[in-house]
Structures are given as C-alpha cells and as structure tokens.
Amino acid sequence: MSFPILSLIIFLPLAAGLVILALPAERKQAVRIIALTAAVLDLVLAVVVFIAYDVAQGGYQFVERFWWVKQLGISYYAGVNGISTPLVLMGALVVTSGVMISWRVEERPREFFAYLMFLGASVQGVFCSLDLFMVFFFFELAVFPKYLMIALWGYPKTRDYGSMKLTLYLFLGSVVSLVGVLAMYFAAGQNSFDMLTLEKAGFSRAFQQTWFLVVFGGFAILGGIFPFHSWAPDGHVAAPTAVSMLLAGVEMKVGAFAALRVAIMLLPDGAHFWAPLILALGTVNVVYGALIALIQTDFKYVIGFSSVSHMGLVLIGFATLNNEGLLGAGMQMFSHGIMTALFFAVVGMVYDRAHTRNIGELGGLFRKMPVAAVGFIIAGLVSMGMPGFSGFVAEFPIFMGAWKTLPLVAIIAVLGVIVTAGYILLVVGRVFFGTIPPKLDETVGDVSLMDKLVVGGLAALMILIGVFPTLSKMAPLIQSGVTPILALVGGA
Amino acid sequence: MDLTFQPSMLLAILPELGLAGLAAIILALDLIAKGNQKILLGWVTAGGLLVVAVMAALFARPAEQPQLIFGGMLRVDWPAFTFRLIFLLGAAVTVLLGASEHISKRYGEFCALVVVSTLGMSLMASASNLIMLYLAIETTSLPLYILAGFRVLDQKSVEAGIKYLLYGAMTSAVMLYGFSLLWGFTGTTNLYEIADLAKTGGLSPLVLGGTAMLVLVGFGFKISAAPFHFWAPDVYEGAPTPVAGFLSTASKAAGFAVLVRVLMAVFPEVASFWSLVVGILAAVSMVIGNFLALAQRNIKRLLAYSSIAQAGYMLVGVAAHSAFGAAGAVYYLASYLVTNLAAFGIVWLVGREVGSDDLDAYTGLGRRNPTVGLAMLAALLSLGGIPPLSGFFGKLLVFGAAVQAGQIWLAVLGVLTSVVGLYYYLTVLKIIYRPGTDEHALPVSASWRVALLVCVAGILFLGTVFAPMYGLSLSTAGGWF
Amino acid sequence: MPFINAHLLTIILFSPAVAALVLLLLPRDKPGLLRWFTLAASLVPFFFSLLLWRGFDPAGEKFQFIELAAWYPAINSAYHLGVDGIALTMVILTTLLTPLAVLTSFSINEKIKAYMVLFLLLETGMLGVFMSLDLLLFFVFWEVGLVPMYFLINQWGGEKRNYASLKFILYTMGGSLGLLLATQLIGVVAGTYDFQKLLSIWPGLELPGGVLMGLPLATVKSVAFWAFVIAFAVKVPVWPFHTWLPDAHTEAPTAGSMILAGVLLKLGAFGFIRMVLPLFPAEAHQYAGWLAALATLAIVLGGLGAFGQDDFKRLVAYSSINHMGFVVLGIATAAWAAGTADGVIALNGAVLQMFNHGLYSAGMFFLVGVIYERAHTRDLNAFGGLYALLPVYGTILIFTSMASLGLPGLNGFVSEFLVVRGAWPVFTAATAISMVGLFFTGAYTLKALWKVLHGPLNPKWSGHLSEIDLREIAVIAPLMVMILVIGVWPAWILDVINRAVSMWF
Q1: Domain coordinates of chain A in residue numbers?
Q2: In a domain? residue C130
Q3: Contact (Cβ atoms closer than 8 angstroms) between residue A359 and residue A318
C-alpha cells in the first residue's frame, strides 16, 4: 500500500482539532498556530494530490481500502477522481482561508478552531469517500461543529434561528438520502456499500425512478435546491465569517457532489426520468435566487442568495446529463466554492470594521480597504460569469449542455446572469464606492496582511482558472471525471 | 424434557451466583463500614461486577447450539450472554455514578439493590420458562421500586416510587394474564415447547395474537414505549438521577431482551401481526417521545421523553422481524446504554451541584467543566444519531432493517422524527455552551469520573469501531431465531 | 525574430496586460513613474503593430499571423488568432489611440495606478476582439473590455457617473446575452467554435428535416442572426439602441471617451463585418433593408440630436451616432449586394469610416476635454469668442471639426463618399435621406464651432483660459497628421482594406 495521502488529508484536521481541544484555553496563539499549520499542511497535500493525479489514466487514484464492518460490506474506502480532486483542493483552500480570516477571533478561539478543523475533516471525508456508509459518516460528523459555530459565534440577532434551521435542513437532507441509500443497498443484494460495486448493481428501472427522487432530493437539499434553499441564506448570514465561507463554499458542494456521485451515477435511469424536473427547479434557483438577492438590504444576504442562484447552475449542469453540462457543473462547483468563500471573507472584513451590514449605512469603503474591495469586485465578476474569470469557463459549458437538452433552460437561466450583474454592481457601487459615511470614515481601517493574502490568493486562482482552464489542469481533470459518468448515464 | 442436573449447569449460572454473592458481601460490608468509608462500597461493587463480568465472559459462553438447563428454566445462548454483559456494565456505571454524600448513609443498600436488580435482569435475558420469566421480572422490579423511592424524605421521590410500583404492578398483571392464557391453552410453561405447539397448528392465530397483545403491554411498560410510557417522565423526574439512568437503560434493555425472545420464540406464526403492532408502537413512541420532548424545560423530563423515542427506534429494529433488525436493536441498546448513562450521570452532577434540573442550570457548563461539556455533547449527539458516536450506527441498522423489511414508512417516519429529536438535543447543547454567570468548575468525584469515562469511551468505541459489537449483536440475534 | 514573427499577435495582445500586472507592483505614490511607465508600455503594442503592418501581405492569405493553441478543448474552443486587412486596420487604430489616450490621462490625479491598470486591460480586451478567430474567444474578449470601461466611467467620470456606468454595462451586457446564447447555439450545433470551420459549416447548414430543437432551421437561424445583430447594434450603436451612449460619453473621463468613441464603437461594426455577414449571408441579405433603414434613422436622428445639445460633449457624443450610421449603411449595402462592386465599395467605405471616425472622434473628445479642464464647464452657451483667446486651440478644433463634417481633403469625406457611392444604387431612398442627414452634420458642427470660438467673447473667460499646452499638442498632432494624410492620399490604407473586403465578398 502506498503512502496514505488521502487519509492524511482527512485525519490531519481531525487530529489537529483534538490536539487544540486538549490545550488549555488561555493558549490562544498556540491554538491558532496549530490550526494554521494543519490547514496549510492539508492544503499542501491537496495540491500534491491535484498535481499528482494522472489525468491520462483517469479513474480513482490514491485508493486506500480496509474493512470497517465486514459483515455489512462497509469499508473505509478512499479515493479521488477527476471530479473530487478539485473539490478536495477547494475544501483545503477554503479551510486554510477560513483559519486565516478568523485569526482575530478572540472569543474562545480554542473551540472555534477545533470545530473549524472538524468541519474541514468532514468535508474532505465526503469528497474522498468511495463507500456510501463513509459518505454519511463524514457528512454528519459536521453536524455539531457547524451548529455550535453558528449558535455560539454567529450574528447575535439571528444565530439561534439560523443555526437550527441550517443544521436541521442539512440533517434532514442527509437522513432522507440515507433511507434511499439503504434501499439501494438491499435492492442490490451485493452486501456492499462500495459505490463502484453498486454502479454495476443493475437496479431495475422502476426502482431507480422511485428512489432517485429520494436520494437525489435529500442531497439536493444540501445543495440548496428550490424550494428547500431557504436554510442557505439564513444559515450563512447567521454564521461567523469562516463558517459562512465553509458552508456556502464547501458544504453546499458536498451536497451537490453526493447528489452526483450517489444519485446520478448509481441510479442513471432515475436521473434520466427526473432530469426535466431538476432542470426546472435549477432554473428557478438561478432566476429566483438572483432576483431575491437584488432586493436585499443586508450585504451578507445578497451573497447568501447569490449562492442559491449559482447552485442552480450546478443542478442544471447535472440534469443535462451530457458532457458539457457535467463538465461545467464540475467547474462551477470549484469556482463557486472559491468565489463565495472570497465573498463571505470580504463581507466579514467589512462587518468587522463597520459593525453593520446594512447596505444603506455603508459606502466608500474602497479607499479604506482597497485590497478587499478589489477582491470583492473580482468575485463579483466571477459571479456574473465574466469571461476571463473562472465563472465563465464553468457556466459556459453548462449553458451549452442546456442547449443540447432543453434550450429554454439556457435562455431563461441566462436572464439570471444579467440580474446577477445588476445586484453585484449595485452592491459594489453602494458599499465600496460613493461617499463614505462620516462615522465609518473615522473608525474603519484597512484589512490585515493575513486577510490580504486570502483575498489575493483566492482572486488570483479564479483568474488563473478563467484564463487557463486547460493549462491549469482544471478542465482536463474534470473531463476525466465526467467521462465515466457519461458511460454510466449513457449520454453523449 | 431433560430434568437431570449436571455440574456444568452451575458454570452457566456462575455469573448469577456471583451476583447473589456480591449482594450479600455488600450488605455485610455495609454493616461494618462507617461514615465516609461507605463511599468505598461503590468501588467494591464495581470491582465485583467486573469480576462477575469476567467470569461470565470466560465460563458462561454459550455453546454452538443453545442449551436449555435446569429443566428448561434457563437457556444458555448468545442473547443471555450479551445482555448479561450489558446489564453488568450498566450496573457498574450506575453504582459508580451514584456515589455521593447525598445517598452516602444508605449507599450500601443502594449498591445491593442495584446488584439484585441486575441479577433479575440477567435471569430475564436467559429465562425460557414463563414462570422463571415472571420471577425474574419481579426480582428485577422490586429493587427498582425501592430505588425509585430511595430518597424517602423527598416527596417527589416517594411519589415516583409509588407511581412506578402501581404502573408496574398493573402491567405485570396484564402480562401475567397473558402468560396464564398461554399456559392454559398449551399446558406448558416452557417457551420453546409452546413455540413447537404453535408451529404444529395447535393454537389458533387469534389466541396467539391476543396473548401477544397482552404480553406486549407488560413489556411495553418495561421499555417505556408509547402508549405505556406515562410513568416514565414522572418517575425519572422524581427518582434519584442515577436510578433514573438505570431505569432508562438496563431495565429497558432487560425489557427488550424478553420482548424479543418471547415474540420470536412463541409468536413466529403471527409474526406479520405483531410486526405491525410493534411497528405501530414504534411509530407512536417516536412521534410522542420526540414531540413531547420539545416542550420540556426540565432536563430529566426531556431525557425521559427522549428515552421513549429511543425505545421507538429500537422497536423499529424489532418490527422488521429479521436477524438483521434484531441485531440492530441490540446494537442500538448497547449504544443507548452507555449514552444515556453518561447523560444521566451529568444530569446527576449538575442537579446536585447547581441544585436544579432546569435546562437553564446548564448555562455555561461547557466553560465551567469543558470535559464534562464535551461528554454531554457526545451523549446528546449520540442520542441524536450523529457520527462518530454510537447512536449513528444504531440508527443506521434499525432503519436499514425497516427498509429491508419493506417497512419504508417506518424508516421515513424514523428519520423525520430523528430530525425533530436533533432539534432538542441541539437546544440543550447550545445552552451548555452559552456563557453563563457562574464560572466555577463543578467538583467531580473520582468514581463519577471513571464511570463517565467508561461511558464516553463506549460511545466513541461503538461509534467508530463497529465490527466487534456488531458481530456480537449478530450472534445475539441468531440466538433468538 | 522568428519567435516574434510567429507570436506577433500574442505579443501585441498581451503586452498591455503584462504591463498592467507590472504596474500593480509599482509604488502607488509615484504618479510620474506610473504615468510614464504606462505610456511606454502602451507604445510597445503600437511598435509591434507597425511590424505587423509591415509584415502583412495584402495579396496573401485571407488570415495571416495565425496562432493556434489549445485553450478549452473540452468544449472545442481554442486560442486561435489571426488578422485580415480589416482587423489589421482596427488593430492599428487601437494601438495608435491607446498611447494618445494615456498621454491625455496624464491630467488624472486620483487613483492613478488603478486607472492606468484598467486602461491597459481595456486595450487587451479590444485587441482580442479584433484578433480572435474563435467564436468563444471573440465573446470572451468582447465582454472583457466591458469591465475596465465600466470602472473608468464609474470611478473617474462626471457627476452622473453611477447612472451612466450602470446604464452602459447593463445595455451592453443585455445586448451580449443574445450573443452569448447564439454563440452557444452555434457551438452546440456545429460542434466547434473555430471561426474558419464555422464558415464552412454554419451558413450552409442542413439538418435532417430542416428542424432544429423543434423549430424550423430557418427560424432558428433568423433568431440567432438577430441575437448577433442586437448585440452589435447596441455597441455601434444603431438607433434605437443608442441611448446609453450620450450618457456614457458625457460622464466618462476624456481619455475614456476617446477610446469609447474611437475603438469601442468599432467593436460593434467589426462584429457585423466579421461575424454577421460571413456567418449569416442569407439572413443578412433578407434583413438588409431593415438595417439600412435603421442606419438612416441613426444618421438623421443622430444629427438632429446633436444639433439640439447645449452640452459640448453630448453634442460630440450624438455626432458619433450620426457618423456610425454611415458605417452601418455601408454594411447594410454589403449585406444586400454581396458580391457586387457596389457592395464592395460601400464596405470599403464602412471600414475606412470606422478608422476615420476613430481618428476624428477621439480628437473631438480630446478637444472637448481640453476646454473642459480649463473652463470646468461644457455648456456651449457659456463659451463664445474663444478664438481670440486661444488661437492655436481654435485652429485645431476647426481642423478636426472639418474632418468630422466631411470636408473634402480630410479623411471623413473619403469614407463617407465611398459609402454613399456604394449605397446609392442599392438603397437609393435611404441614401438620399442620409444625404439630408449630412446637412444636419454640417449644422451641428458649425453650431458648436460658432458657439465656442466665434461670436462675442464671454468676458468672464478673458485671462482665465490658458492656451493648449505641449503635451496636449503631442496628443492631437498624430491624429491631425493621419486625418490629413488619409484625406489626401487614402490609397495606402484603402488598398489593404479593399483587398480584404474583396476576398470576403
């Protein structure tokens, strides 16, 4: 067995979290340093996986496997393919950024960073899973960190409501899927939770059509599908900055990824049957999310709803079940993760300094925090699908995929893009330009070096991918992950 | 029927003999010990229980084939073996948790009563004769009635004891009526002989179904499944907290052990009927338990309703009427035992030191005693079914069993109510981690600490390393079929 | 050298972007360094585009200096660059105007670094449109140019800059949506975005049953045609999609207006010539009449609109609508009469008009900026008799205005004459009405000149206005030279354009 790099990626944050919890509460600096070290190491490992993944060979690589509960066919089975490798990288990036952004958390940093690490371990665990049991195990591992982080460090006015709503929705989604997965397990009769085995189980058409809705629906709740999307803005807004980044950036991708990996790949006939519905709901997500974002007065809610809108594109990409759509959805998962993390990071920076998120009370902050403002603008351009940024190379294939299946979807969803341009420009104009209120002029200062590093790094990455989708290995990598999916769903 | 006595039979009941002996030793020591020395009795008891457990593991292992011993009174099989260990663990933890000044004067009695009750439970799990079964049940219950009313100066405690006694007696009577019908129709009290008769068509399904219902009432009370749950919140609230913990775990486990044995052994012919009934009981328990828990402001009542809901989840496994489901229920029980004992242990600590069982008493616990806070977090989330804690795998198994048995509705209801459950567990958790006014750490005793550590280790072990316990659960389930 | 020759387009295209990155690293508080560096950097692509001009063989291949590299093979899009005579002209125009605009921007004192960075990025965006031989790449650069322009207006513009910039970007993005969708449609149907391949696939596309996505193929193609047309028409702008233009121009900083009028508007016209006519010959022919009618309206109403303005800059802005109308008229003629001499002549005129308008409209906006910087007003009624105060400035203004007016001997006359000559036999009525429009051109130009330079001197200016300075003359001089040269001897550039146009049609 080769070097267990994926296990290291999963368990390193977990171990770091435990070590942090074991430290005395006063040693705040030690806590931060351990968290950052673990996150950076994790990121380095993820980069290694990203670079070392052999696109030409494809399939699952860095595979590790041993029995967990042999009687039930449950194994610890880790491996990554072209779809999950970028997500692992994205997860590690967002966790690292989250740690850096939270550097100044003074209220019980020990628990905060420990929970953040647990959250990181949870998402990496899901992305690396090749075993259905493991998917749920790691996904639900995140229940308490995310709940407590929102409930304890969140925005005081809405944290009780937001944390509970988010946690219960996510839990509901996962347990609903769990029922479906159990049905698959028994129907397959292979005594195995191994997804590669279940791919070949040959479920009957009727079975697939019935259970697809359950499995996909559960995971799609995590991905923020309309009309089960409302946890996302409420939860994200209530959460502290790093958690918003992680939840919107990575956790929603966990749902989408699982929906793809489990529902679509294991129940392809069901996917074909329900694709029109998903297309329709995804389109509603795109347009409705954007429209609601347009009328928000809270800075953070704008971004919260923008996530709903963008995840709609991922769903559309999935539901096209063709090469372009899936490729675009894969790209969009990565791109949106980075983008929304950057968004929330900047929103957090603004809130920390201005102590208000009401767009009407903000203004002219470009002069005070130029780097953060430029970062937000770049994220905004990604969000608008502006060419030259990662959003474009992700959304364009999705639209192409939609043209191939249902042109109307492409046409309507494109309208969401113009609305997106509208709300992004409005927010940018009101928050970062215009005149600065006198009160803010005195109090607001520039962001820290750590913040600038985060903003610069994330922004540069989005441009890099936008300009070089192929050279940056992103598109070929995801393409190598899409090809086997097409073989399963039988699309072109 | 083989009525001859063989020395090996003694070996099979060596643990029970040990328990009886242990109870006697404790009572004797209690007479000698003075003042604070009595606290040491807890260690003696726990040590004794450990010895018994080792004896049980070494000498009382069942053979390949289940054996009936003592003229068919007892059955040496995997269910008996597994449940005995579960009870011993529960008793040991309860005894260690219970050590405190509040009951120190009568701590010896407390330990002895727990041990005797454990003896009864152990017999319940292995009883294969209606009479033996009834005796075992009463052996279990009588000490528990006393324990529930242990704090004789506390009106609530006394009320709890009496309430528990009355409910217990009534349901026992109904159950006994069911037993008598079985005996009347078949002329034998041996469970497996009754089963043989039923198989050959000697009994009409109507009779079997009717008696199954009557028996279910008795066991439903034991496991506090709705609609036989009314006693639970009041008794848990009034009884001394360690006793409530014991009632809600070991006693419930004993109830399950018999319930499953009787249903599987005697009523396989009407399986589809009782499967439905148990399914309905499960559904009602899950719904009532979880929804009523939402409204509770007293942690003990909240845990009482939660334990009703948990009984519902275990019944889901039973309702599946499969080895897989039964194994799931066993796993669930084991997980639930360590989890709930940990929760009640902490409730005991807080109730004693803060002087209140209100949820508000828990404010700031996470900061006062971070480790205790973490333990409570583990316990609550395990009850909620969150990995890497034991409750997750238990839920997975019972829901899986429901799906496998085609009872999709039960599985769906189960997951939906578990979302409701998570709501109140998280609410408690939030209170624990909210900053409070008092920042002083609560004092904890060594024995309490050890007991809690055992529970938390159990929660984590059962939540990550599933295979050993699952293997044992499968064997156990095999012994019932 | 071989490397430079093989990658000449890439060098021209990305040298501004690279310079922008370098600029980011320069210290913020050294305005002199930032300005001169940017000027030097913007001269690099100009220098290389001169090499390009020298190396371009008008009689050679249709597209030259082709570069092809993988960009996004997963969706069949490639980094495919190349120029023909038309694009070459536009590249020269862009690389010429950018240093001049940068020089103009030396008067910018706020956030110099950001301004210069955006300016250089804008240049890359515009050049990319002219060079792309891949439909997707074309779209990429088409959109990329928007962002810097938006911020240039939004940050360094006049009082109503927020309104103007938002209107600008929403109009253009809204227009681009159709382009985006149609691009995707074509890409999906044809399976490639390569322009040269599309030329052979798309116009003669035949599908089994003639049905595409449940609609008759002809309908789908018409819809795609209109999607393209609207996107480009917004940019040109063709009446009635023009309303963003006066606002954007008026509020933009001087250099922004120069580039906006000089190059950005050409993107739209270039889109017509590069994409619409070759890819949709049949539809273009079918709808050419409509296009001509819109062009005529643009000429007449643009002229009228200009005449009605009291704001000097707004007046010049409306004049752009008027002048670009001739470009569209030329294109419409070519669409109707593809392959005939008339069509070729008209298109020649249109392309030359694009180049010429780039020169004199940039000059006009610059001159408006010069007076505005001194007087802090653009109200025509506030001026008067300034010729006496500023004789040099007055002379330059008259010279440039005359080019705009179409005075024979200056460049505007040549191209407008070609357009009218080509269009007359085809769209006689429209051309005739457009001639009337020319009358308005004269009217508003003279009105502006009269109000600014002549009449009684407004006493408040005497002693307060300084003469045009050396830097500003350095900006306007190259433009004036070009205006005169093309006016007197257009053959050198017309030859390149004509050969390219003849190859196409």
Answers
A1: 5-489
A2: no
A3: no
The residues, any chain, with a CB within 8 Å of residue B41's CB and separated by 6 or more, are: B26, B29, B30, B33, B107, B108, B111
**Nearest chain A residue (CA) to C193:** A400
- CB contacts, 8 Å: C226 with chain A: none
End-to-end Cα spacing for chain B: 20
Say yes or no for a CB contact (<8 Å) between C181 and A327. Answer: no
Which DSSP string do the residues of C377-424 spell out, in sequence order?
--BGGG---HHHH-HHHHHHHHHHHHHHHT-TTSHHHHHHHHHHHHHT
Judged by a CB distance cut-off of 8 A, whether residue A294 touches chain C is no
Chain C contact present for A411, CB below 8 A: yes
Query: Contacts of residue A168 in chain B, CB cutoff 8 Å?
Result: 419, 422-423
Which of A76, A108, A179 is best to mutate for the B interface (most B CBs within 10 A)?
A: A179
Residues in chain C: 505
Please say if the pLDDT value at position A340 is more than 90: yes
User: Is A399 in Cβ contact with C181 (below 8 Å)?
Assistant: yes
The identity of residue A204, as a single letter, is: S
Q: How many contacts, defined by CB atoms under 8 Å, are there between A and B?
A: 97
* CA-only gyration radius of chain C, Å: 22
Q: Do A425 and C144 touch (CB under 8 A)?
A: no
Which residues does B364 contact at the CB level (< 8 Å), separation at least 6? B432, B434, B435, B436, B437, B438, B439
| ipTM greater than cut 0.95 | no
| Distance between B1 CA and the closest CA of chain A, angstroms | 36
The sign of the dihedral angle between the CA atoms of B162, B167, B170, B171 is negative
Q: Which B-chain residues 452-481 have CB contacts (< 8 A) with chain A?
A: 466-467, 470-471, 474
Alpha-carbon distances, residue A377 vs A235, A346, A434, B257, C148 (angstroms)? 24, 10, 15, 65, 12
- Assess contact for B23 and B15: CB atoms under 8 A: no
CB-nearest to C180 from A393, A407, A414 is: A414
Contact A68 B467 (CB under 8 A): yes
pLDDT in tens, B400-433: 999 999 999 999 999 999 999 999 999 999 899 8
Using the beta-carbon criterion (under 8 Å), do A425 and C166 form an inter-chain contact?
yes
Rounded CA separation B390/B402 (Å): 19
Q: Is residue C316 part of a domain?
A: yes
Give per-residue pLDDT as tens, A364-405: 888 888 889 999 999 999 998 888 899 999 999 999 899 888
Which string of DSSP letters, residue by residue, matches A459-476? Answer: HHHHHHHHH-TTTTSHHH
Give A217 to chain C, closest Cα distance, Å.
Answer: 29
Question: Is B400 an 8 Å CB contact of chain A?
Answer: yes
**What does DSSP say about strands B74-76 and B67-69: parallel, antiparallel, or unpaired?**
antiparallel
Chain A residue at shortest CA distance from C73: A470
Q: Do chains C and B touch (3 or more CB pairs under 8 A)?
A: no
pTM of the predicted model over 0.95:
no
Give the tens place of pLDDT for each residue, B81-92: 999 999 999 999
Residue C240 resides in a domain: no
Number of domains in chain C: 1
Contact assessment for residue B45 and residue B34, using Cβ atoms and an 8 Å cutoff: no
Determine the 3-state secondary structure of A76 from DSSP.
Answer: strand
Which chain A residues have a beta carbon less than 8 Å from that of B423?
Answer: 164, 168
Closest CA to B45 of B109, B130, B121: B109
Q: What is the DSSP letter of B406?
A: T
Measure A354 CA to nearest chain B CA, in Å: 25
Q: Which domain holds residue C504?
A: 287-505
Name the residue type at position A195. Answer: M
Q: Flag whether C307 is in a domain.
A: yes
Q: Is B377 left (phi over 0), alpha (psi -120 to 50) or beta?
A: alpha
